[in-house]
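worker-3 :: picked Pentapeptide repeat-containing protein
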Amino acid sequence: MIRPTESTTSSTRVRSPLQPRIRTPRPVTTVDGADGELIMNGVQVRSIDLTGVDSDFAELAGSRLAEVRLSASQWRHAAFADSELIGCDLANAEFVESGWQRIAIGHSKLVGIRAAGCSWKNVRLSDSMINLANLRFLEAQRVQFEGCNLTGVDLGSAQLTDVRFVDCDLSEADFSNARLARVRFERCRLARIGGVAGLAGASVGPDDLLQLADSLAAALGLRVETEEDGDDSAPEPRTASTLTVEE
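worker-3 :: tokens ->
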């Protein structure tokens, strides 16, 4: 069941993601992606264009990327760890058999990103556009989305553990067959959620729960009527189950 959030106990407390471990990176002005390999270790990169890069193996570690263009890029067997990406463009990038660990992304564009079946651990995404992303079968642990546009994101069959959504727009997101443990929604837009049964086990605030009313009613086959719609003289329809709301 979806639980309205009243208090946080040790069993339901959502663990926050760990911060990236970055020493002083060295500034570089070019990145060599020859032979399908792209290695960025301990570097600081700003305002370079890697649009459409196609990498069979990539490693990003201990680095800071700012205003780097990575749109429409292809990443296979990529390992991103202990790095920050600020103001970067990863729109329509695709990650296959790849993992992120202790990654912080802010003020970036990830529209239409494809990371189906990938692993995100200790990842923080803030003030970013992630709408229409394909995150099916994603394994996410200790991940936080804050101030993000997640409209239409596909989280079908994803496994989310210790994940927090704060001030995010999740309108028309799909959670079909998702598995959630210690997942919390705070001040989010949750209109027209697909696969609402996949939210079982999540914690929501009272306002967030109200926004789920239409999706929950549709999933349960409930019809919401106004007083004008009702007819007191008509016989009460038979239903297969009864919904009871208790104070």
